[in-house]
Design brief:
Two copies of one chain form a homodimer.
Chain A lengths: L22 H19 L5 H13 L5 H10 L6 H13 L3 E4 L4 E4 L9 E6 L5 E5 L6 H9 L2 E12 L1 H6 L1
Parallel strand pairs in A: 3-5
Antiparallel strand pairs in A: 1-2, 3-4
Helix pairs in contact in A: 1-2, 2-4, 3-4
The structure holds a DNA duplex (30 and 30 nucleotides).
DNA sequence: ACCCTCTATGTGATTTTATAACGTTGCGAG
DNA sequence: CTCGCAACGTTATAAAATCACATAGAGGGT
C-alpha cells in the first residue's frame, strides 16, 4: 500500500476533507449511526465488521485490504484475505465504506446515513482522501447516457491532485 | 479478465458508444492519427506500442493487461508482464489509451487528438465500454475542490449500468 | 563511420490485490 | 430442539502490477 509508511495522524486532530476536527467524537458518532442503521434494517454489524469500520474511521484515510487484514490479525480475528474482503464487502454494499478504485483501497464514508453518490479528492503527494458529493447523472455524463440509452446505476468519481496542505508545503 | 470469454464482435460492425459503425475504417484512421501525432511530438510509436494500440482499437472494448500480453506473445513479442505494462504506460501517458479503473483494464481512446477528460459508461452485463466527455472540474466537484483549496489535476469518471443492447434483451 | 548515451526491450523473480472452494460455527425461525 | 442459513476460518490459487537487472537499438556529436 502507498499510504502505510506514513506516520499516523495524531489521535484527536486528523484530516477530514482536509480540515481539522474533533476526531474522537466523529469516530464515535459514526459508529453509533452505523449501529443504529443496522438495527433498523436488520443488518448484522458483527465484531469483524464493526472492527473494520472502526479502524477505517479511526484512520480517516484510505487503507488497503491487506493492511486492514494485518490489524485484524493483531486483534485476534482470522488472518486470511477473505476475512478482510468479506467485511469490506458488507460495509461497501451497505454504504458504510467506499472503495477508492484509483488506489485499490477503502475509506469510511464521511456522510453516513443518506444514500448518496460520493466523489473523492485524492492527494497525489500524501494520499489523503476527502469525500464530497456529486450528481454526475445530472451533468454532461447524464445527458450522454440518456442520449444513447444507457442506464446509470452507480458512478465512480475520483479527482486526483494536490491537497491544500501539500500545496502549502511546496 | 471479465470480458475475455465473450465472442469477439464481427470485424466490421462493432460497438463504439454502443453504436454500429465502420470499424475497419475507424481502426485505420485512429492509427494514422496516432502515428502523425507521434511524429509531430517526437514520440516513438515502436512496434510493441503500435501493436498494443492496434489491438485495443480492433477489439473496441476494455482488455486486461494480461490478455494483451497473451496476444503480444502470439505475435512474437516478449511474454513477460512488463512488456505489456510498459507499452500501456506509454499509450496512457500520451492519451492514446485510457485505463478503466473499475475494471483494471484498458480501452483505446475514442477521441484521439484533443486533450480531454474522458468519462466512461460501463455495462455491468456485457462489459461494453463507451467513452464520452466530461468536465467534472466545473460542476459540484470543482466547487468543492475550490472551496477547500484542492488542485484537481486529473479525474476518473466511470458510470456503471446497463447498456441499451442489454436493456433491450432483458 | 564511430562511439556514447539514453531509451526501449526482454526476462526472471516477487509483491500486491482478490477470489475460489470447502469445512465449521452459531444464531434465529419454526 | 434442530434445521437452515449466514457468517467465519483456513487452504489454495488466480489476477494485477512492479522490481531489478541484462541486452539491444536509435540518434546525436565528432
Amino acid at each position: 500500500m502507498t499510504s502505510e509508511m506514513r506516520p499516523a495522524p495524531a489521535e484527536d486532530s486528523a484530516l477530514v476533507g482536509f480540515q481539522k476536527h474533533d476526531h474522537a467524537h466523529c469516530v464515535e458518532s459514526s459508529l453509533t449511526v452505523a449501529e443504529t442503521r443496522c438495527k433498523e434494517e436488520g443488518l448484522r454489524l458483527t465484531p469483524v465488521r464493526r472492527k473494520v469500520l472502526e479502524m477505517l474511521l479511526q484512520e480517516h484515510r484510505a487503507l488497503g485490504a491487506y493492511s486492514i487484514l494485518d490489524r485484524l490479525r493483531d486483534e485476534g480475528f482470522g488472518s486470511q484475505p477473505p476475512v478482510a474482503y468479506r467485511a469490506l464487502d458488507f460495509l461497501v454494499e451497505n454504504g458504510f465504506v467506499h472503495k477508492i478504485e484509483r488506489l485499490n483501497a477503502f475509506v469510511a464514508c464521511a456522510h453516513p446515513g443518506a444514500t448518496h453518490s460520493p466523489a473523492f479528492m485524492i492527494c497525489r503527494k500524501c494520499d489523503a482522501v476527502a469525500e464530497t458529493h456529486s450528481t454526475p447523472a445530472k451533468g454532461e455524463l447524464g445527458a450522454a447516457a440518456r442520449a444513447v440509452g444507457f442506464e446509470i446505476e452507480r458512478t465512480v468519481v475520483e479527482a486526483e491532485g494536490v491537497c491544500p496542505d501539500c500545496t502549502e508545503k511546496a
